[in-house]
Amino acid sequence: MTIFLVFRRAGERVNRDGQQSKVVRMRSKVPILTMLLLILASSLFGGQLTNDDIEFRKKVYANKTGDRLPYRLFVPLGYDANQKYPLLLWLHGGDGRGSDNVRQLNGGNQLGTHFWAGKEVQLKFPMFVLLPQCPSGDNWSDPDLNQPTKWLELTIGALADVEKEFSIDPDRVYLAGQSTWAGWEFGLLCRRIRANGRRR
Asked: pTM of the entire structure?
């Protein structure tokens, strides 16, 4: 949609019949800058800006070889770098898979992801919520080989980045999620974290 705004100075002009007519400057009740910003925001976001886009920061972790993992991060309101915060790592179920950095928030995962970031919980227990996204057709782990996939390895890298950027309490990093194969991910991730010496 294209909108043209035309402005003319007040004064007189001559029409086709040779008669003079007044050109009146129109004044808007809404400041023009505000109108332009609204139009620009609507164009940039396609009218699709949601509460999730505001509450859960969109981020992408990239390792040294260029592999990328989309994830969302909820930062507690009133975050204070002088205070240590717990962090919840949420591994989505099968419906959350993709590359849009959206489906892990809903796609059957909304109850879990939004519960921890809800106002009532955050008022009592302010915490970070980390929500990585595994691609379609892939899993967090390979149950047959009892090995983590690349996406679980990237998740550990994303967690390390968040711990560097924010004041996270290393003794209060929690793991939760949902899926028919959740047990595999939990066990493998805990084992991997211990192997890296990042948890006692």
From this structure: 0.69
- What's the CA gap between 39 and 189, in Å, rounded? 45
The three-state DSSP-derived secondary structure of the chain is CCCCCCCCCCEEEECCCCCEEEECCCCCCCCHHHHHHHHHHHHHHCCCCCHHHHHEEEEEEECCCCCEEEEEEECCCCCCCCCCEEEEEEECCHHHCCCCCCCCCCCCCHHHHHHHHCHHHHHHCCCEEEEECCCCCCCCEECCCCEECHHHHHHHHHHHHHHHHCCEEEEEEEEEECCCCHHHHHHHHHHHHHHCCCCC
Report the CATH number that the domain containing residue 58 is assigned in CATH: 3.40.50.1820
Tally of domains within the chain = 2
| Residues 56 and 41 both lie in one domain | no
Q: What is the pLDDT of residues 126-158, one digit of tens each?
A: 999 999 999 998 877 776 666 778 888 899 999
